[in-house]
Design a protein that fits this description.
The protein is α/β, with parallel strands linked by helices. It has two domains: 210 residues, D-Maltodextrin-Binding Protein, domain 2; 94 residues, Periplasmic binding protein-like II (D-Maltodextrin-Binding Protein, domain 2, 3-Layer(aba) Sandwich). Helices cover 39% and strands 16% of the residues. It has 13 helices and ten strands. Strand 6, helix 6 and strand 7 form a beta-alpha-beta unit. The radius of gyration is 19 Å and the shape is globular.
Length: 318
């Protein structure tokens, strides 16, 4: 049973593939082996930007912690690295954490992150709200945070998620091009694809950062938290300093989107930065909502107590 859950965990958390770029990496180390460097898994998205800034501007070093950012091209690769102890923590999502724990891997949410997913309609569409997607084709990657956001957004709009015709299109570039060609009514996408769609005429109906969704998180195995509490406290101080710098002068960091996160130049110029907030935990209600969705999809057998998959010690007092 545990193997089955781990396989489900690896398969359904793959939200999208990114073009992988070089971020310094070293030899794999076990999360159970003492070492001074925290290896953090990241993606090419807004969630990871404060980590990039903290690294490149020396904020981790100022706080006395060594951090190595390891860029992944898919959630499967990230989750495999977490399980193998090749990284000490990662930018991930609530669904992935619930699935990891259901599969027997003790992963804990330590804070929210500020990423963005959105529902975009094709350039020629006259649809202006989620209700307009009733009976329409909406592209997603099934059983992922993207799928969850699509149905969560429908529920928030007082419509039944089943009213949409969800179309599984796992590859993001294909999903984007089909939307722009008018072969889909709508598509749910992360950045930078969401901004690229908008630049090419698509309209964004709703985005996660202005809809109240709490889904993107930082998470660490219990072994890392037990081994390196001081390093993690320093890590979060540097993270928040970097986030504040981005909030104060976002335009300064547009080229970072290109150089470090593989954003296209035009998308980087048009990108609307999220308003980064001080590290905090998702609400119990947000975690329970994700758990109930997983239960309804048959992806977990039981919903854990939300308090059992979070660790509040690292962001307490922020």
């Amino acid at each position: 049973m545990k193997i089955a859950y781990l396989l489900i965990f690896a398969l359904i958390t793959a939200t999208q593939s990114f073009v992988q770029t070089t971020v310094p990496t070293g030899a794999p180390t076990s999360a159970n082996t003492p070492h001074t460097t925290l290896k953090i898994g990241i993606f090419a998205d807004a969630d990871s930007l404060p980590l990039i800034v903290a690294d490149t501007e020396g904020l981790f070093a100022q706080e006395g912690v060594k951090v190595e950012l390891v860029r992944f091209s898919s959630a499967i690769e990230r989750d495999s690295a977490l399980h193998a102890g090749k990284i000490d923590g990662a930018v991930t999502d609530v669904l992935a954490v619930v699935l990891a724990n259901q599969g027997g891997f003790p992963l804990r949410i330590t804070s929210l992150t500020n990423g963005r997913y959105g529902v975009a309609v094709s350039p020629d569409s006259t649809i202006t709200s989620m209700q307009g997607l009733e009976g329409k084709d909406v592209a997603v990657s099934l059983n992922t945070i993207i799928h969850y956001f699509a149905e969560w957004s429908a529920t928030q709009a007082k419509m039944s998620p089943s009213a949409m015709r969800l179309v599984p299109i796992p590859k993001m570039p294909v999903r984007l091009e089909m939307l722009l060609a008018g072969k889909l009514a709508a598509a749910v996408m992360p950045e930078p694809f969401l901004t690229e769609a908008k630049l090419r005429g698509a309209r964004i109906l709703v985005a996660s950062d202005d809809s109240g969704l709490e889904a993107g998180v930082m998470a660490f195995p219990t072994s890392t938290i037990a081994r390196a509490p001081n390093e993690l406290a320093s890590f979060y101080r540097a993270y928040w300093k970097a986030a504040q710098r981005i909030n104060e002068t976002p335009d300064k960091y547009r080229q970072v989107l290109v150089n470090s996160l593989s954003f296209p130049e035009d998308a980087a110029r048009a990108f609307v930065f999220p308003s980064y907030v001080a590290p905090r935990l998702p609400s119990r209600a947000s975690i329970e909502s994700a758990e109930q969705w997983l239960l309804a999809k048959g992806l977990i057998k039981t919903a854990p107590d939300p308090s059992s998959i979070v660790d509040a010690r690292l962001v307490g007092g922020w």
